[in-house]
Each structure stands twice: as C-alpha cells, then as structure tokens.
Amino acid sequence: MGEVYSLVNTAKGKFPQSKIVLSEVLRRTDVARRRIGTLNDRYDWITKSVGVTFVDPNSWLEDWDLATDGLRINRRGARRLSQLYSRVGGLGGRGKILHDVFVNCNSVATRWQ
Predict the structure, then answer these.
(1) What is the pTM of this model?
(2) Which residues are within 8 A (CB) of 15 and not within 5 positions of it... i.e. 6 or more apart?
(3) Where exactly are the structural domains of the chain?
C-alpha cells in the first residue's frame, strides 16, 4: 500500500494542475472478491487522505466484459472502461485525455497476492 500512496503523492506533486484519478483493482476470477474489495478499500482511504478521485470500474463491468480466462478484460470491457475514464476525465467519451493522470493499481495488486 505504501507504493501506491507514494505513487499518488508523487503524481499529485508533479502535476498540481491535473485531476489525479486512482482506479480500483479490477475483479478477476482467480482472486476472491473479498480480497480485491479489501485492497480497494485501502486505495479508497489513500484517495481520501491525499485528496484525489477514486473511480470504481467494477461497477461498470459485467461478467461478459472479461476475457474467457477471467483475468483480463476483452474489447467490450476495454471500450466500457474507456467511456468511464473519459467521463471521469471530463471528456464525456469524446476522446483522448490530455491533462489528467490516471493511476491503475492492477500491477501493484498482482504483486500483492
């Protein structure tokens, strides 16, 4: 959790005029939802303590947005996440996010298992 806190704090310091967004860890079929939920609760605490936005992509994804292995999202899931991140970034799904910093914790969470 210290790595994520440091990463978010660094991003906030380097990009003070940008909206910093921390994305929840996506659910996977090989990790218990409770474990992912616990981790996401910790990340939610970080966002509140540092003062950045926390986004919940799991509420946007359906089971059929995951690839057949249950570990990654498929094209439909990627499209849905793109729409979510565009909305959070204030673009309303219109394209590239230029001035926002999105921090995705999935790689950190994979090491945490």
Answers:
(1) 0.71
(2) 101
(3) 2-112
